[in-house]
Amino acid sequence: MREQNPWPTPAWLGEPSPDAAVEPEVERFSLPAQEVPREMWFPEKPAARPRPAKRKAPVSLAIAMPAVVFFALLSAFFSWVVSEPLWLAVGHSSTGMATVSRCVGSGISQRCIGELDGTRVTLLGVTAKQATTGSKIEVRRVGEHSDRAFAGGLFLRWFAGLIMILACGAGIAIVTGVHRMHRRDRLAALSTSLAAPLLVLVGFLAAVF
C-alpha cells in the first residue's frame, strides 16, 4: 500500500501543486498624467545678477580748486555790481539832481561822471540824450556815502546780476563733482554750492547799506 506524501509536490519539478496559494495580481504603479505648459519644457536660465554700479572717481583737485576760486571771484564781482541796484529796487535809496560833468564811450560801455550834492559820483544808466556836459538828471543812490548814482530802470541790473550769481553757484557744483555723489548727499552739496555765492551777496549788501 502506497503511503501518501503529506508534503506538496514542489513546483520546480514541473508539476503544479494543488495546494500552492494563488498569488494575487498586482497592478503596475504609475503616476497620473498631467499637462505641462510648453514654457516649462525647457526651463530658462536664471537671470544674471545686476552688477553693482561703479563709483565715479572724484574730480581732480588740481582742476577743481582753481575753478572754485574763479567762480568765487566771479560771484564776488557780480555781488558788488548788484548790491546797490538791489537795495534801490526795494526802496532803500535817496533821490537827488545830478549834473553831468563828462561822459565817455557809447551804449553799454558808456561811463559818465557828475556832481551830486557837492560830491563827485559815477552816473550809471544815463541815456544818450542826457550824456551832455551840464545836463541835469534825476538819480538815486543808496546813501550819501555811495559814490554811484543810478538813472533809469534798475530791474535788468539786479535781476541779471542775481542770475549770474546763481550760475556761479551752479558752476561750483559742477567743478566739484556734485553729480558724482550719492543721491542723498547730492542735494546737500548742491545747496551748499548755491548758498556760498548768495552769502557773498549778503556780505556786500551789508557793506553798502
UniProtKB/TrEMBL annotation:
The chain crosses the membrane at residues 59-82, 155-175, 187-208. The keyword Membrane applies. Keywords: Membrane, Transmembrane, Transmembrane helix. It comes from the Bacteria. This is Uncharacterized protein.
